[in-house]
Structure formats: C-alpha cells, structure tokens
Design goal:
heterodimer, A: 366 residues, mainly alpha, 3 domains, B: 46 residues
Chain lengths: 366, 46
C-alpha cells in the first residue's frame, strides 16, 4: 500500500474530520476504529494480539497495584510477544508477517507500564489508553509518542487556525520528501545512474548505493513522521519530533540525538539510564542500548554488529572529548569552522558506511 | 510568503490563505508524481 493510495488518503481525512464533527465522546474513538479497520483488512490476528497487550498492560497494574514484580512480569509478557514474532519472521519470513505496527505499539505499551510503575501517569480511563495506542497518525510508523502528552492534548485540544496551517505545512513537507525526493529522485532517477556505473566503477558504485540507501531511508522515514505530526496537529495533538537534520550532526553522539528521536529517547529513558545506574559503566550501557536499538529493527547478527559499531564510535568520540579537555591545542584545532565541516563529513560517512562495514565483517567471520 | 501576507491581510486570513496554498501543493504533488508509485510505507512498520 502506498502513501498516496486512496484508502490511506481517505482514512486520514476521515480521522481528521471525525475528530472534530462527531459528538465529543465519539471523536477520538473514531480514529481508533479506522486504525482497527486497517488491522482487520490486513491481518486480523494482529488485532487480537494488540488488544490482548492493551488489556493486560492496563488491567494487571490496576488490579494488583504496581510492584516491581508486576512491572517485571508485564514487561516480560510484552517483550516475549514482541520477540516471538521477531523470531517467527527470522525462521520463516515467507509464511509469517509481523503484526501491523507491533514494534512501535509494544514500545508504547512498555512506556506506559514504566511510567505507571514510576507513578507518573495521570488519572485516566481505558478509553484514553485505548485511543492512545490506536491513534491513527502514529500507529504504523511512529513517532513513539508519549502517553502524558497525548492525555494532556486529549483533554485540552481545540481547533486553531495556527495548527491547521502548521499541520498542512508539515504534511506538505512529508509528501515532498516521500514522493519527490525519495521515490522520484533517489529511487527513479539516481537509481538509473548508479546502475549504469556498476560495471565500470565498482567502488564508486558501492559508495553511491550506501548514500542512496541512507538518504532514501531518511527521506522516507522523516517524511512519514512529518505526515504523522501534521495529521496529529490537524486533530489537535502535539507529537514529538522524530528527526532533526541528522546528517548535519557533528559527531556520532549528536547523530543519535537527531535520528529517530522518539526511539532514541525511549532507549535512553528505559534502557540506558537504568543500566548506568545499575552497572556504573557508561560504555557497557551504550553498547547494550545500541544493540537493543539494532535488534528492534531485526533479530540478526547483522544488527548486533551494527549496534557494536555505533557503540564503538560513541566510545571513541568520548575518549576524544577527554583528550580535548586535557590538551588545549586539540581544542584550538577542533573549534575551527573547517574542523566542524570535517566532523560533519566524517560523521555522515561513519553512518552511511555502517552497513557496508558490517557486511565486510560478516564476510571475514564466515 | 506568510510574512508577505501579514503585511497585507489580517493574521487569521494569512493563515487561511497559507492553508489553502499548502493543500493545493499537496494535491499538485499527488497529481504530478503519482506515477512513481514507490512510496510503500508498510515495510517501515518493522
């Protein structure tokens, strides 16, 4: 299904219109019903899994009060369901598919459980939680929005001309990224050029393929995030940003603050910080966090190596910061504009070559 | 463009005109680039 298919367009328009014109009690549930219709249309089994997760994550803490044991059991159940599907796809990807939106959905559920454990959730009903989990704009490709912001908007949202204008602007940018920059320029036009040099220039071919892959991923993913943020804005909700010009990051640590921000923050809040508190070892915590980041995408050695590669990059950058604070001449060099440009260039190449280097390492291993 | 409009009409009208402009551009993208048909987003749901 494409982003410009009639079904998607109609669903988004219906969700926006219904969220304002229906009686107040039905306004947001209409968005959830549209999401559920999608699930029924694509894969009805997904719906039962997601409803099960929503029910247990809401009811168990309510019934048994939030102890550490309940927290661990709840997280374990959600993680096992998530891993079950990841393993199933790994074993037989031809006959099984991941329930629609499960990766984002399960991280939202875990966020809700963690915040409940920390007693930071506001007074709310199952209706609030349900509409949060099945919120159409962010359901399939994120961002992994937070319940507190959603709940606050749910009770205070109003139709403002500023939000309409800003929302449409974001949707426009999103479609321009997905349709013009990604689909038309990168996939259609650049692809022809890259294919034409495959036989004559092997290294340039692989270099351009890497650039094309990462730029394409960025334009598609940030484009969908823009559309989600824009549609949410038209419905009176604020959704967190997901990308902030990541390819202009001056170092790899900064890159991870600008790339897939909602997932990075999730990992930082619920994996990295508890691990640092527990182990007191920053590198180990970064390594585990980025490995989880990688495994979230795919359960494979590829992504374990990818996580390790980025963790190593961050560790080297931190060592460099220590050296910088010790020796003033390094600081003098790094504070120049030329070095800043070089840093951006280096970070960009460190990121885009991550998959190529991973393939080389795997080839060496086997 | 918004600043240009602000000097000529009320802020509320400037926002309405901007909204129509954005909506028009979105429709234009659909009509002009619909043939590429590569924007399959479901693979991104992971």
């Amino acid at each position: 299904m494409t982003i410009y298919s009639t079904e998607v367009m109609l669903s988004l328009i219906m969700a926006i219109v219904f969220s304002w014109i229906l009686p107040k009690r039905l306004q947001m549930i209409s968005s959830s019903i549209i999401t559920i219709s999608f699930l029924i249309f694509f894969d009805i089994s997904s719906l039962s899994i997601l409803l099960f997760m929503a029910t247990i994550s809401y009811l168990i803490p309510k019934r048994y009060s939030f102890s550490t044991t309940i927290l661990l059991y709840s997280i374990l159940v959600v993680t096992l369901i998530f891993l079950f599907y990841k393993v199933l796809i790994l074993v037989d990807s031809d006959n099984y598919i991941m329930p629609l939106g499960l990766s984002f959905y399960s991280f939202r559920v875990m966020h809700y459980i963690f915040e409940g454990y920390k007693e930071k959730l506001p007074q709310h009903t199952f209706y609030d939680y349900f509409t949060y989990l099945f919120f159409l704009p962010t359901f399939i490709v994120g961002p992994i929005n937070r319940f507190l912001q959603f709940h606050s908007d749910l009770n205070s949202r109003e139709l403002k001309s500023v939000d309409i204008s800003l929302g449409l602007e974001r949707i426009l940018y999103g479609y321009a990224k997905v349709v013009i920059l990604s689909s038309y320029l990168l996939e259609l036009k650049l692809d022809r050029y890259i294919d034409s040099i495959e036989a004559t220039n092997y290294y340039l071919y692989h270099y351009l393929v890497s650039i094309q892959y990462w730029l394409n991923l960025y334009f598609q993913f940030s484009g969908y995030s823009d559309i989600a943020i824009g549609v949410a804005s038209l419905m009176g909700f604020k959704v967190m940003e997901n990308f902030n010009y990541p390819f202009f990051a001056k170092n790899i640590s900064e890159f991870w603050q600008k790339w897939h921000i909602s997932l990075s923050l999730w990992i930082k809040d619920y994996v990295y910080k508890p691990l640092v508190a527990l182990t007191r070892r920053a590198f180990l915590s970064v390594l585990i966090s980025l490995t989880i980041f990688g495994l979230w995408h795919e359960l494979s050695l590829n992504y374990i190596l990818w996580g390790f590669y980025h963790a190593l990059g961050i560790a080297i950058w931190h060592k460099f910061q220590i050296l910088k604070s010790k020796y003033s001449y390094i600081k003098n060099i790094t504070d120049t504009k030329t070095f800043t440009l070089f840093s951006i260039f280096l970070t960009f190449h460190f990121v885009i070559l991550s998959f190529e280097i991973r393939v080389i390492v795997i080839n060496l291993l086997y | 463009m918004y600043k240009f409009l602000l000097n000529r009409v009320k802020p509320s009208w400037a926002r309405v005109i901007m909204s129509i402009w954005y909506a028009g551009l979105i429709i234009a993208i659909f009509l002009l680039f619909n043939h590429t048909q590569n924007g399959d987003f479901l693979y991104l749901h992971l």
